[in-house]
Automatic annotation (TrEMBL):
GO cellular component: a single term: Fanconi anaemia nuclear complex
Domain of life: Eukaryota
GO biological process terms held by the UniProt record: interstrand cross-link repair
The protein's name: FANCE protein
Taxonomic classification: Eukaryota, Metazoa, Chordata, Craniata, Vertebrata
Ranges for domain Fanconi Anaemia group E protein C-terminal: 1-194
Length: 195
């Protein structure tokens, strides 16, 4: 709809107010899919700040409150949004999921699914760097495994950080099968760069 061009003309505080007025954080999921498809057609593209605000307003509460697998509507909306605005999405949503205390099993599965199926290569690298900034835990090992499963060429400094982190954390994961699989995956995928 032509009215959506207002999204490009709002200041950040105006955009937050508009999202609140439209109740986007609690809108029905089928509408969320529709709204995200409209965002893809919007020209010019949203600014980074506007996309980050929309990522937070549209998805943050829904994703952090997941206690079972996301609905197909929510996954479709996430995939649609990520296809164009994956960087602001990662900075807002992935950062929030990583800081979430406790198990967060559904959030971890969602991160893996996004890495495996939705994110562009540069965004996969961003997720990896975000994961390596927080203390490694058993719940994050599948996310790293998903990143390695993409078989992307990693920048040397990011690969070095990954290897260093795995080496430093080895004692804490002495009995972890997931950790052993991860180390094997690194050695297999990057054997020429890992000594």
């Amino acid at each position: 709809p032509p009215e959506l061009s207002i999204l490009n003309n709002c200041s950040p505080s105006q955009l937050e107010g508009l999202c609140s007025f439209l109740q986007l954080s609690t809108c029905p999921e089928p509408f969320l899919v529709c709204f995200c498809s409209w965002l893809l057609a919007l020209t010019p593209d949203l600014s980074y700040t506007s996309a980050a605000i929309l990522a937070e307003q549209l998805f943050l509460r829904r994703v952090l409150s997941l206690t079972q697998p996301p609905s197909r509507h929510l996954m479709a909306a996430l995939a649609s949004f990520c296809s164009k605005y994956s960087h602001p999405f990662c900075h807002v949503l992935v950062a929030a999921m990583l800081q979430e205390p406790g198990e967060g099993a559904e959030q971890t599965k969602l991160m893996c699914e996004l890495v495996e199926e939705c994110l562009e290569p540069h965004s996969v690298q961003l997720v990896l760097s975000q994961v390596l900034e927080v203390p490694l835990s058993e719940k994050l090992l599948p996310v790293l495994q998903a990143v390695l499963g993409r078989q992307e060429v990693l920048p040397p400094e990011l690969l070095d950080l990954l290897v260093l982190t795995l080496c430093q954390q080895a004692p804490a994961f002495a009995t972890s099968l997931n950790y052993a699989k991860l180390v094997m995956a690194v050695l297999t995928a990057y054997q020429s760069q890992v000594s």
